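Course assignment 3, question 2. Fill in each field.
Student: A.L.
Task: Predict the tertiary structure for the chain below.
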Amino acid sequence: MKKWSAIVVIMMVVTVMVITAEAEQTNGWMQCFRHCSKPCNSEDGICFVRCKVKCGA
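Answer field:
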C-alpha cells in the first residue's frame, strides 16, 4: 500500500509542476504582448500582429 501512495504523491507533484510551468509561460507571453502593444493604436492591426510575432505567438 505504501508503494501506491508514493506513486500517487509523485504523480500529483509532477502534475502541479507541469501546470505551474505552463502558467508561467502564458503569463510571460501576455506581459510581452501588453508591453509591446501599448503604443499601438486600436485600429492598427499590423502593430498587434508584429507584437504577436515578436512575443512568440
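Instructor remarks: Residues 2-37 form the longest helix (36 residues). The two ends are 45 Å apart (CA to CA).
Grade: pending
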